[in-house]
Amino acid sequence: MLSLSVERVSLRLTETVRSSRGEIDAVDTCMVTVTHAGIVAYGEGTPIEYDGVTADDVARAIEADGSALLGPDLTDPQAALERVDAWDAPAGARMALDGALHDWIGKVGRRPTWQILAAPRRIGPTVYTIGIASPAEAATAVRNAPQVGAFKVKVGGPDDIDVLDAIRQVTPLPIRIDANEAWDLSTARALTPRLRALGVHLVEQPFPRSRIDDYVRYRELPDRLPIVLDEGCTDVASVHAARKHSDGIVVKLCKAGGVRAARRVMAAARQAGLTVLLSCMCESELAISQAALLAPLADHIDLDGHLYLRDQPFRGLGLEGGWIVLGDGPGLGVAPAASPKRSRQ
């Protein structure tokens, strides 16, 4: 018989990360373990807390419905994926079960899942995110960052331009910025020429989701930055709306509900002519390996969430020359750390 367990895990960060939404030094996630016929598969599901969903909500949904969705065995994992995809539950719950099923598919086939799905093993180059900080702190963070291909900088603080100037002085790499809905139209108008001069090449979610008119009016500026929506785009329906006031979208498994759902969102964005950024929250290598299966559909890879963790509950990913290297073992290519140091709640 199949067995399913879910665990709420608090992932501690190496340092406090600041954005316009506040400060975090740990994030809660849920990890599931599926065992059947001697095979153990894992999946991670992240709650979207800024939308009011908690790790408890995700865990309760999995505990209530997970076993019934997976069925007594996994002789037909594709049918189980369809049931999970159609499940009316928090996206993080669907993400967790979807991830475990993709891990199972590879393990039962004794091959890496990325290989089965014809995805590349090396993906990138990825970014590294710099939180809101002083100019000196930001420059130090860039100097100490892992070797990556670009930087994403959180903005919305009082010293945005000085911070970006300090970063530009210590790196020639591409810079994109993420306002997390913190700007208004007048701020964007005033900052754009200076951002252009610093080589910033796009901005994520500059205005609140509800301020559609601000997006439309900003796009009328002759020398604006390209706009990519994160909080403002979650599913296929919102992709169709996004094409009218943005240039691209950010895709995260925790918003879409797993690999299968995110693939639909990415395909819709491609059809709409939108740029696609494949991104994540602060997540473990398990969740990053799930998202990595979609790399061929992305224009930019923003999969750096695991790089901020103090203790890694799963291991198996590499980072070479700014590119993420997926594990070559069966399934998602990651395994529980030998001595995981994580806070269970």
Ordered list of secondary-structure elements with their pairings:
Blueprint: E1 3-19, E2 22-36, E3 39-45, H1 55-70, H2 77-86, H3 91-108, H4 113-116, E4 122-123, E5 127-130, H5 135-143, E6 150-154, H6 160-170, E7 175-178, H7 185-197, E8 200-204, H8 212-218, E9 227-229, H9 236-242, E10 248-251, H10 253-256, H11 259-271, E11 275-279, H12 285-291, E12 300-302, E13 314-315, E14 318-320, E15 323-325, E16 335-336, E17 343-344
Parallel strand pairs: 5-6, 6-7, 7-8, 8-9, 9-10, 10-11, 11-12
Antiparallel strand pairs: 1-2, 1-17, 2-3, 4-15, 13-16, 14-15
How would you describe the overall organization of this protein?
By secondary structure, the protein is α/β, with parallel strands linked by helices. Helix content is 34%, strand content 25%. It has twelve helices and 17 strands. It has helices spanning 55-70, 77-86, 91-108, 113-116, 135-143, 160-170, 185-197, 212-218, 236-242, 253-256, 259-271, 285-291, and strands spanning 3-19, 22-36, 39-45, 122-123, 127-130, 150-154, 175-178, 200-204, 227-229, 248-251, 275-279, 300-302, 314-315, 318-320, 323-325, 335-336, 343-344. The strands form four sheets. Strands 5-6-7-8-9-10-11-12 form an eight-stranded parallel beta sheet. It has a four-stranded antiparallel beta sheet with strand order 3-2-1-17. The chain has a three-stranded antiparallel beta sheet with strand order 4-15-14, with no helix packed on it. The longest helix has 18 residues, at 91-108. The two termini are 27 Å apart. One of its GO terms (biological process) is amino acid catabolic process. It comes from Micromonospora wenchangensis. Residues 135-228 form the Mandelate racemase/muconate lactonizing enzyme C-terminal domain.
